[in-house]
Amino acid sequence: MDKTPALFGQSGKMSAKGILLILFLVLFTLGFDVIGAGLCYCAHMKEKTCSAAAEGKVIEYKENSYIGQKRRFTPVVKYQAGNEIFTGETNVWYSSRIFETDEYVMIGYNPANPEEFYIKNYDLNIITRLGIIFLVIGGAILAVTVTILILDKNNLDKERKGAIQAGIIIGGIVLFLFAGFAAVAGL
Q: What is d(CA 117, CA 109) in angstroms, rounded to the nearest whole number?
C-alpha cells in the first residue's frame, strides 16, 4: 500500500494543504525575524542617539504587575545632563530589583533630548538578547521547513528519512540551547 506524502501528491506536485502550510511557516518565520531584527535595530539606534554618558543614582523603583503575573520593576534614576538634573525611569521592566536603592549606575542619554536615557550594560543588552532569540528561532523554523520540504520531495526509505529527521531535531535542540546560553551570557 503506497501512502502519499503529506505535502506532495501522487504526481509529485505540492498539494494545496502543503502550500498553505509552507506559506504559514514562511510568514511565521519572517514575523519572528522582523521582530528580532527590529529589537536589535532599536537597541542599536538607542545606543547611537544616547551617546552622552553620565553617572546616575537609582532613587526608587516603580512596580507594575497585572492580574496573575509576577511583579515587574523598573528603576527610577536621577542624573545630571549639562547643568540640569533629570529623573526618569527606564523602559525595561525587570522581574527583580537588580540595583540597590542609592546605587550609582552609568547611563547613556541623548544630548538633544536629555530625558531620553538608558542604563548602560543592562537595558540595551536585554533588548538585543531578546532580538537574537527571535532571530535564531525564526532561522531554526526556516531551516526545519526547508529540510522537511527536501525530505518530503525526495523518495527516501523510512529508516533513512527517520534518521535525518532525528538529526535535525537534535541539531535544533542544540542550536536552541546554544542560542539561549548566548543570549543569557551576552555572547
A: 4
